[in-house]
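Recap slide: Sugar ABC transporter permease, sequence and predicted structure.
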Amino acid sequence: MKNGNKKHISKAAWLPLVGKWVFLGIMIIFTLYPVIYTVLGSLKTNAELTQGGGFFPETWHFENYYRAFVQADFTRYTLNSIVVSVSVTLLAVVTCSLSGFILARREFAGKKVLLALYLSMMFVSLGSVTLYPIYELLRALKLNKSIFALIVALTGGQATNVFLVMGFTKGIPKELDEAAIIDGCSLYGVYSRVVLPLSKPILAVVALFSFRNAWNDYITSMIMTISMPKLQTLTVAVVQLKYSVNAAAEWHIMLAGASIAIIPILIVYLFANKQFIAGLTAGAVKG
């Protein structure tokens, strides 16, 4: 009976483990398959793609990438995307860290109303409805003819990031603030010398979220640069590759452009994965 119980317990212990690995394997397949298909599709001919050829290319056509750069001037659009994404990331980190610090540490009139408005914006998705008012506002301020308009438009809507920073800041002992004030620090000194250095993990999360959203954005970037094609970002330029000068859909060129567009964001996640997980976990626990 004892041996039978041991075997039964051993099998019972293996079932959850096997189920977990099967579930993880399925999730990995669903996550990686689109990326792998995009890269392999970018090395096929258009006929091979449209006629449903094999998973792997019959012949590897690396010239598709050259054609993508030549037809879409990817050097310019890549530079535009880098400028926009880096600028949005820096602005988001600065504004979210300041907002989160003030909301976590200071009491002022209308704070509860402001927090309620922030919370409502997290659960209500206005989407493209806000694009026209934003564009009209930037046009009234004479900012719609520069790339700065796109940067400002993409920097807004940081309610989630503000709450992440606020939750993390609440987990930092207030005694550190009081000690800094006794030593002669002002409110800005407490922020810059005490809270900001300790908030690096959550700020890394904010930076990653902001960079990803700015780099992958299509609708806002298209609307803000519709009258200025030279200021288009890489994501918008990829869609323009869908049609050639002959108005025929060239999916192999479009997939080549898409492959180029996803490389930077994959590199960012590859090198910042540990900081992302650590910061997100810390923000969740301390919030």
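The mean pLDDT is 81.
The longest helix spans residues 2-41.
(End of recap.)
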